[in-house]
Amino acid sequence: MRDMSISRRRFVFTSLATPIALGMTGGIAGGLASQIAAGAAPAVLRRGLGQNEKLRLLKVGVGGMGGADLGELSKHKMVEIVGLCDVSQVQLDGWIKDSKNDKGETVKARFPDVPTFKDWREAYTKLDKNFDAVSCSTADHMHAPISMAAMNLGKHVYCQKPLAQGAWENRRLAEVAASKPGIVTQMGTQRIATKWRQYGGELIRNGTIGPIKEVYAWTNRPAGWWPQGNPRPEGADPVPAELSWDLFLGVSSDRPYKNGYTPFNWRGTIDWGTGAFGDMGCHMLDVPFYELGLGAPISAYCTPVKASTDQFPESESVVMKYAPNKMTSKDGLTLKWFDGGQFPDFKAIGLPDGWEGGKQGEDVVKGDGGVILVGEKGIMWFPIEHAWARVFVDGKAVEMKPGEFKQTNHWHNWVDACLAGKKDACVSRFEKGGKMCESLSIGAMSSLDPGKVLEYDAEKCVFKNSPAANAALRRTYRKGWEVENLA
């Protein structure tokens, strides 16, 4: 394969010519929040971002969630798709997946004249100054290199969750994003823009149930979604002609191709994914994590079912401890995670009858996942979406009326922020998402040394007492795939 690696010099940050950020006047800044919410940043702020005043976007990964991202981002009237990239020709020839695509339109039909690439490094090189932003929707192990390389070039980045695979990668993406005031970033946790999660965030922020002692979170995944808990398959299968297997492997270690690895089942494989915890934890724990101001955990302890050295457990429970802060109890906070068919003991937590089982329990509590926060004054059930948070005191529901919350478009929020040069307008910017995903990665990778309290050294980004799990917290990239700021 031809070496398409980009030199160290090309990946050093170069200033992005965005017209705004150096000296906004009070008048412009004062009305910016409402303009972004309405999706209409003033044209004067957009001028100079792209030659045609649109955000020129390179889409890396166009299948699955990548197709949804492409569909939503391309619907914004100020977005121009200038490049499409995927390691699979099947995906490049596939279907756009957005809520208004009733015609069954393919990627090729929607964007007939847009250049396509298999290798994102080639796309970066050939498009050069002719793109302003990147949307990354690949397998988890490629999120960090693709996103970091884009930031090194001064490009805005929208990256699907989880932000990165390893704790160190998440830390570095957060740090580098914070150091670049001209770059706007967003992690793809679109549920955070819903009115339900905004309301739950307000309840936490207002201290409705007092300082938080415990957080319980759960999902039914991976059951029925992707395989976990299996040993590494033996042998090799022929690589499909339409798939660039070496490009899929990317920074991960080399291994033979096996049918079923891609386009979806990679999620459960330790080399490429983050398992149910790293995947769904982003959607459920983002608001609680941000509102509680949590940092890195002190420790993590995993109890797996059907553990494997190649895949995350088929099912697990994980307990993580956090140091106290102004939002938690004086003794700190304990996070308890469950997946793969395991659930908290809802009744023991304090939920009233009818919330821990039966029809209401199946539909409202168990479902695809949720969060329960236990405070010193009460308990809050915080669903993933499609239902309002509920508060319980002494086993009885407290009647509360949600206020007015405007549901927004997470993808378009990022575009508007890019056009306006207002990075803090993104609620899931890398500075926040990276901190949360570092924590989720620690929980996910604790399964590599199960049944042991793993003590986390936040300064060094390592477990103090687990060489076995440390390799996954800071991975060594395959030779030739090194990226500046991730070395």
Describe this protein with a few key phrases.
single chain, 487 residues, alpha/beta, ten-stranded mixed β-sheet, 17 helices
Describe the structure.
- 30% of the residues lie in helices and 17% in strands.
- Residues 1-48 have low confidence and may be disordered.
- The protein contains 17 helices and 16 strands.
- The relative contact order is 0.17.
In short, what is this structure?
The chain is α/β, with parallel strands linked by helices and 487 residues long. It contains 17 helices and 16 strands.
Low-confidence stretches at least 5 residues in length (pLDDT < 50)? 1-48
Shape, principal axes of CA atoms: globular
Radius of gyration over all CA atoms, rounded:
22 Å
List the strand order in the largest sheet.
Answer: 14-13-12-11-7-10-9-8-15-16
Distance between the termini: 23 Å
Largest sheet: 10 strands, mixed
β-strand percent reads 15-25%
How many DSSP-defined strands?
16
Estimate percent helicity. Answer: 25-40%
What's the topology here?
Layout: H1 26-30, H2 32-37, H3 43-46, E1 55-60, H4 65-74, E2 79-85, H5 89-92, H6 107-110, E3 116-117, H7 120-127, E4 133-136, H8 143-152, E5 156-160, H9 167-178, E6 185-188, H10 195-205, E7 212-219, H11 245-249, H12 275-292, E8 299-305, E9 315-322, E10 333-339, H13 346-349, H14 358-366, E11 369-375, E12 379-383, E13 390-393, E14 396-398, H15 410-420, H16 430-445, E15 454-457, E16 462-463, H17 467-473
Parallel strand pairs: 1-2, 1-4, 2-3, 4-5, 5-6, 7-10
Antiparallel strand pairs: 7-11, 8-9, 8-15, 9-10, 11-12, 12-13, 13-14, 15-16
Helix pairs in contact: 8-9, 9-16, 10-12, 12-16
